[in-house]
Design a protein that fits this description.
Layout (H helix, E strand, L loop, with lengths): L1 H17 L20 E2 L9 E2 L10 E3 L5 E3 L6 H5 L11 E3 L7 E3 L30 E3 L4 E8 L4 E13 L2 E12 L8 E13 L5 E16 L5 H8 L18 E22 L6 E22 L17 E20 L4 E15 L14 E17 L2 E10 L7 E12 L3 E12 L3 H4 E2 L8 E2 L5 E12 L2 E11 L2 E3 L5 E3 L4 E14 L3 E14 L9 E13 L5 E12 L6 E3 L4 E3 L9 E11 L2 E8 L11 E3 L2 E2 L4 E11 L1
Antiparallel strand pairs: 1-2, 3-4, 3-7, 5-6, 8-9, 8-37, 9-10, 10-11, 11-12, 12-13, 13-14, 14-15, 15-16, 16-17, 17-18, 18-19, 19-20, 20-23, 21-22, 23-24, 24-27, 25-26, 27-28, 28-29, 29-30, 30-33, 31-32, 33-34, 34-37, 35-36
Amino acid sequence: MKKFFVLLIIAVTPTLVLSQIRQLDKGLGSFGRTNQNQSLDSLSNDEISVKLSGKTKYTDYKIISHKNDTTYIDTTLTIQKEYKFNFRRKDNFELLPFHNQGQTFNNLAYDFNSLSQFPDIGFKAKQFNYLNIEDINYYHVPTPTTEIMYRTGQEQGQVLDALFTLNFNKRLNFSIAYKGLRSLGQYRRSLASTGNFRTTFTYSTPKDQYAIRAHIATQDFTNQESGGLTDVALQNFINNNPNFTDRGRLDVNLNDAENVFEGSRFYVDHNYKLFSSKDSTHQKDFSNLKLGHVLLYEKKNYNFKQTTTTTSFFGDTYGVTGNVNETSNYSLTNNQAYLEFNSKYILGRFKAKVNYTSVMYGYDSLVNPFSGIDKVKLKGKAVSVGGEWRGNIGNFQVNADAVLTPGSGHLAGNYLNGEAFYKKDSVFTLKGSLHISSKAPNFNYQLFQSRYNEYNWSNDFNNVGTRNLGFSFLSKWGNASVDFTNIEDYTYFNENNKPQQSDEAVTYVKVKANKEFKFFNNFALDNTLMYQNVSSGSSVFRVPEFVTRNTLYYTGEWFRGKPLLVQIGATFNYFTKYKMNAYNPLLAEFTLQNDSEIGYPTLDVFFNARVRRTRIYFQLDNVTSSFAKKNYFSAPNYPYRDMSIRFGVVWNWFI
């Protein structure tokens, strides 16, 4: 019920407080064209004329990332918007979704450029839609701004993502947002219900002597778990038995299981400028010194529930048959103090920082007395030191971040992330990156308890050492990237659902290229091709050799006065066969399997349109499923979705 109250508040507040405005003529409605006398008119019959300052333009509606990179609220309709129109609102090219939105994803590729400094709770299959610190945006807008995203679900349900932000003045911004999802799915026991609430706050004093930004995020992800199709049901699916075209008639392995992942986070970063000197010519900061503090407090917990244990799907349990209700808890508190110095003599901004971190993971009590485990919690405290540098030398930009955590506990390790850019106007950008990290495996690899006898362990693993070297080229001629990754002591779940470290180092190469061809004025062919090779460690680290996405589409403005921009096309996806990882719903992790190879093509069709600042989406997923071979799976025993129709909108108000 509280989810609906949050959505109601977000949707109604801008209307009740400030009244709703219809159009920012030739300004934000087209994003790219500006008019010095922009006007707005209301949706009601009584016209309300609001004059904006001639100095106000679309670039004043800013989105500020965690790293303080700035973009603008964008109401255009592009092919990239089509790729991101899903419940994650991200491009899923390197992921394979399960059939119902709100469920998990299988990996078609891996990214090792943004690893965290410390081990996490784990249960990675539940965290694809989890918003981390880097996913939270802050805003700076001249007028109150709202964005609504709506998309229908599978069978019954929908996803709604609502955002409202306003500046009380130029120095104080507030935003509140909630994304709620509920979708029944086509197969039994595939209901998904999730919620992502976040609110942000930024403030600075008139002369920027003091600045603060903060956010609060609470998130929950609930999934019924089926365990996949039974052996008999699987054959009925593969053989296209006409009695089971209604997928709800296919039997599944689990009929009473669900898992829940919850997280809450409080984050604040504030600083005080100790001194600054001005460039007398341009009246800009010549140099300054800031003293700052960052507080992060985050809690996560994972819960697996099952009404009975009569099934042998997970093996034997201790004691009598009964209810399973198991919860793993995790909390992390990090206090960081830093000194930030900005001067032309160091060619940018330098930050020295020290962190005090405490972490706890475990259980309230011993779950299985026959497991042989002698501890129920893992705790750690650590002090780490590090520095950051962001510098500019002509067309070159360099970013570096390094942290060292000495000791031998769960938090000991090191972290280095460096990037170098060279930008030649708007012609091309070259980027090189280096990532080196050493940290303990996620906590669920180290300690796990369950009433199921085979799912109990306490391990003392080595730190996982990851080294990644990457290069990318972005230009008007096309985009390309290559990543070389080496992983020592790679940790995974084996065929027996047990955590294990590899004796062999993993060497992984990923090459990706993208090029769009335009022809006949209104037509385009957008192509993305990815090649992957695992030269060592391929028995434990598995990816398809080729993944491709090709989209042929038409874009044009229709009707007199061009009020409607349409986008019509089809997207072909394909990945080569490989031994795709299996999904384990008790662990909420993917495990190795050697029984089947999976790889197949799909074809999706879309009809999208934009009317003023509203983008409308019609999507037909997997249109060839009715006559194609039934070999499409998201994981062994988990079929991918049949042909389905989706509808949705993205709507912006600028009040």
